[in-house]
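Quick one: structure for this chain?
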Amino acid sequence: MRTLERNYSQLSYRPKEAEPFEPVIFGHYHWLPLKFGKYGGRSLPVLFFTDLNYFFWGVENNQFHGRLRQQAIIVAARAQQIKPPRSGNWEFIVRIGSDGQLDAVSVGRALKTPISNLHRINRFNHLDVSIICQFGRKRRVAAKTMLAFLSEEFFDGKDPTDRNRSCESFFENDDNFALTCRDRHVLAAPKSPRTD
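Got it. Here's what it folds into:
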């Protein structure tokens, strides 16, 4: 039987003692339900696709403990390495609006030569969803934009939380992630046009 803990044995965080819980069991994965807050009873993958901002806030502020923390680390790590949903030479395009906020996320053909950042466009061979955390006070809006994109591209425009299993299946499928990449994705600051 394959478990999340076994697949990610290299994680440095280890709980001191086992917590009493009833895991949510789907296939070979055991997703633990949240035991607190308005999302109590939902697994972390469902929380991720329900309230992306809250998920990353919880990770950043150590709101998840024990084995739930291990699973939060796994979901957060995988969320930083999402591969394009199409096979071939594709990349993610992240466009920043003139106000400096996340304007749109899309998938396009990979370019052989990089383009300038003059038009506030960032291109990545895989998507780091945690880039929403770079938007400060507008992070909630960035999270909604990102969730709309993920729903459209990976779930044919349907809400993945209508069927909880879709959320878990997404994170269980290794093919959705560039698991060997260790690149840190930072949105490049837009270049100002020269006024010489």
